[in-house]
Amino acid sequence: MNPQIIQELIETGLPGASARVQGDDGVHFEATVVCEAFAGKLPLARHRMVYATLGDRMGGEIHALALRTLTPEEANRTV
């Protein structure tokens, strides 16, 4: 698995999302995902939304995925 494929899966599964994925060993990754659909949701719910876009790949092809999930407003505040 490579970061580009994970980015595409997340952005396809969460319409309007923007994902930045990093990882160089093929199984451990870090992602920052910005999506309006995260508004009003707790971090665990946001993470579940992202994991749902990856399906069975989680725990298999993707051993670990560290997530930072933000709404566009939250992302603008951190810049």
TrEMBL record:
InterPro entries per the UniProt record, alphabetical: BolA (IPR002634), BolA-like_sf (IPR036065), BolA/IbaG_stress_morph_reg (IPR050961)
Recorded GO CC terms: cytosol
Top-level taxonomic group: Bacteria
GO biological process, one term: DNA-templated transcription
Gene3D superfamilies in the cross-refs: BolA-like
Pfam families referenced in this protein's UniProt entry, alphabetically: BolA (PF01722)
SUPFAM superfamilies per the UniProt record, alphabetical: BolA-like
Family: Belongs to the BolA/IbaG family.
Protein name: BolA family transcriptional regulator
Organism of provenance: Arenimonas donghaensis DSM 18148 = HO3-R19
Lineage: Bacteria, Pseudomonadati, Pseudomonadota, Gammaproteobacteria, Lysobacterales
